[in-house]
Amino acid sequence: MTPFLSEENLFWRDKAREIADKFVRPIAAKYDQAQEYPWEVKEALAEAGLLGVWIPKEYGGSEAGVLSMCLVVEELSKACGAVGVAFAVNALGSFPIILGGTEEQKRHYLPLIASGQKLIAFGLSEKFAGSDAGSLRTRAEKTEKGWRINGEKKWTTNGGIAEVYSVFAVTDPESQRARISAFIVETGDPGFSITKIEDKMGIRAVPVVELDFENCEIPEDRLLGGKTGQGFKHAMMTLDRARPGVAGQGVGLAQGALDYAAVYANRRKQFGQAIGGFQMIQGMLADMSARVEAARYLVYAAARNIDMGAANISKLAAQAKLIATDTAMSVSTDAVQIFGGYGYMKDYPIEKFMRDAKITQIYEGTNQVQRMVIARNILKEARDLKQLEEYFPTEIQRDVDPADVR
Ligand code: CAA
Fold it and tell me: Which residues contact 110 (CB under 8 A, 6 or more apart)?
């Protein structure tokens, strides 16, 4: 037990660290260059039981929580950011089933994910619905036998290698509050296909694809939770729990880049001494390390709150994602700077950290969206700060109705 991590957390972190050292770091550059999925790493993760860390015990997982999931992502991302997200995206894809699935759906799908027999992906974003996820257009219509889906999805991580997809579609276009429902789609469902595999700047060892649904027919029991109109809420609840995973990826990338930069600073000689002896480099390393620690403990706090069942987790999850991924970007950029000309070349592993870090500021909600979530929560919470009201002139109170602030 450490002040922040339980024996169980440490157990999963150490398992992930072992796999990262043995299987991930040695192959990171190769799969990045080839833009291919490292199946042997996935097998090692499955064998170690890591693919069921966040899944409840009754459905084949180890129920070790979001914090253990974040620790695994952090360790893997220290070695390779792409492997970090290749792991974490299975949590993103399966949270809708854990949170909103029927008992039958949980019993059928979760053990397959936990054991690594099947990978899962999350289909929310579309070409015209990125940050504004609620404006998605993919349509699901009731048929006699089940549901017919038409439309497309964009930026689906794990797409093509996953065999199960949590897919969000419009079932009631007229409704304001219950427009969207979630479905489970499987590879091989008629009318479902992968239409584009993206060529990416970073996280190249995991596929990101477009999904296409052309009169895709799925049976009745694939409607998540057996109820329509719950889709947007389930997507948001899922993101609240998955964003700390991206934050864990950010911490791992930042720590991994810092470790390489510190080793380089000890070894690289200029002006007759190791560059680590220069105060400007020391200042950079000190700032990088302080930022990584601050991000790390915010991520652990967010994840711990989720595991404890705290009431409002959106703000903390968004704060962790914002701080940790901005840290990943700044620390990996500084690490390249410390490596100088060598850092810019692919001979060294450091430029990959910078490329992998960039997407963490974008996916699972851009950091602008995280700021939106945080600010909305702060303004809502401020309505309860009644003790401050007497310090405001009455005319200001009259002019602004706090309920108008969205
Ligand atoms: N939990 C539960 N319900 C929530 C919620 C939450 N965290 N957030 C919002 N809701 C509910 C609201 O209560 C509201 O319900 P009512 O209508 O019943 O009142 C409803 O959802 C609509 O809420 P908002 O008005 O706040 O919604 P909005 O349209 O303003 O959007 C947003 C809010 C935060 C911007 C949201 O659209 C969002 O998170 N956007 C980013 C999407 C995103 O993260 N996409 C990434 C997809 S995954 C990916 O990156 C690819 C990958 O494979 C890794």
Answer: 55, 56, 59, 60, 61, 94, 97, 98, 101
